[in-house]
């Protein structure tokens, strides 16, 4: 077994759109959120002969806390079996979005992991306390439910009614927690869902995605994306991940 004193520290890389190469971060302590491009991803190097997984386990939550707009992935060295069940299980415990290998194009791997819609509501609920420290658990869970149920509702009062809550009551909870109201979360949940479709289905026309996501036409989706996130759907389509969009929205809401 390697002594912890002999193990090299894990390198950190940034991956910016169009997600074709790793760029080393030479001085992690000097890196600020403003230094990262929109929709960037951070990658932690993991090479078992040199790195301890416990080190990555400590580094990943630090990165997620410092850079909430950037998802974190694990980059494994050539020859490491990323499909190994134990590695996959332990990597999931690190809350990384993907395990990347050298044998496949980088963008292909990221798209496969980042466009899997099934886990998005859970991921957002886990992300909220990182982005909004001190958020009351009940409010976090309610936001998670709004995100999860959003595709089936156009009115927040109807959504909350199915949960047995009055909109006024929930609005008061959110106001006391210092976060946008439930109606605003429903609107942004719809926009995030549409953004995910844009990223996952590159060849599907914008109009089709807009209508299927509840917008009247592509112009309506474009206006909403610009109002909430400050970017148009064409920009979103060239990126991956929802974190940077929600982070931008929260910053715009608090400005």
Condensed summary:
Helix 9 (206-212) packs across helix 10. Strands 2-1-3-4-5 form a 5-stranded mixed β-sheet, sandwiched between helices.
Number of domains: 2
* CATH homologous superfamily annotation of the largest domain: Homeodomain-like
Give the overall silhouette. Answer: globular
Number of strands: 5
Strand order of the biggest β-sheet: 2-1-3-4-5
Structural class determined from secondary elements:
alpha/beta
| CATH top-level class of the largest domain | Mainly Alpha
Output the CATH topology of the largest domain. Answer: Arc Repressor Mutant, subunit A
Approximate strand percentage:
5-15%
Radius of gyration: 19 Å
Low-confidence residue ranges: 1-6
- Helix-strand pattern: EEEHEHEHHHHHHHHHH
- Write the CATH architecture name of the largest domain: Orthogonal Bundle
The number of helices is 12
Ends distance:
51 Å
Largest sheet: 5 strands, mixed
Helical residue percent band: 40-55%
Kindly describe this structure:
The N terminus is likely disordered. The termini are far apart. This protein has 2 domains: 103 residues, Rossmann fold, CATH 3.40.50; 138 residues, Homeodomain-like (Arc Repressor Mutant, subunit A, Orthogonal Bundle), CATH 1.10.10. It has 12 helices and 5 strands. The longest helix has 19 residues. It is of the alpha/beta class and 255 residues long. Helix 4 runs antiparallel to helix 5 and helix 5 packs across helix 8. Helix 1 links the parallel strand 3 and strand 4. Strands 2-1-3-4-5 form a 5-stranded mixed β-sheet, sandwiched between helices.
């Amino acid at each position: 077994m390697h002594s912890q004193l002999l193990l090299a520290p894990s390198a950190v890389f940034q991956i910016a759109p169009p997600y074709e190469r790793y760029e080393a971060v030479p001085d992690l302590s000097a890196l600020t959120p403003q230094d990262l491009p929109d929709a960037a991803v951070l990658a932690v190097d993991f090479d078992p002969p040199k790195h301890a997984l416990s080190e990555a386990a400590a580094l990943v939550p630090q990165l997620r806390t410092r850079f909430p707009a950037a998802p974190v992935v694990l980059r494994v060295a050539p020859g490491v079996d990323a499909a190994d069940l134990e590695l996959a299980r332990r990597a999931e415990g690190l809350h990384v979005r993907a395990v990347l290998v050298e044998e496949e194009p980088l963008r292909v791997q990221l798209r496969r992991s980042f466009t899997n819609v099934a886990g998005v509501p859970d991921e957002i609920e886990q992300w909220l306390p990182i982005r909004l420290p001190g958020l009351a658990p009940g409010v976090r869970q309610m936001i998670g439910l709004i995100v999860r149920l959003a595709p089936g509702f156009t009115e927040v009062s109807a959504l909350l009614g199915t949960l047995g809550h009055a909109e006024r009551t929930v609005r008061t909870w959110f106001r006391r927690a210092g976060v946008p109201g439930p109606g605003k979360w429903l609107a942004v949940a719809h926009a995030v869902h549409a953004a995910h479709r844009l990223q996952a289905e590159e060849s599907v026309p914008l109009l089709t995605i807009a209508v299927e996501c509840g917008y009247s036409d592509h112009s309506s989706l474009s206006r909403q994306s610009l109002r909430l996130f400050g970017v148009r759907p064409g920009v979103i389509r060239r990126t991956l991940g929802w974190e940077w969009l929600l982070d931008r929205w929260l910053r715009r809401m608090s400005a």
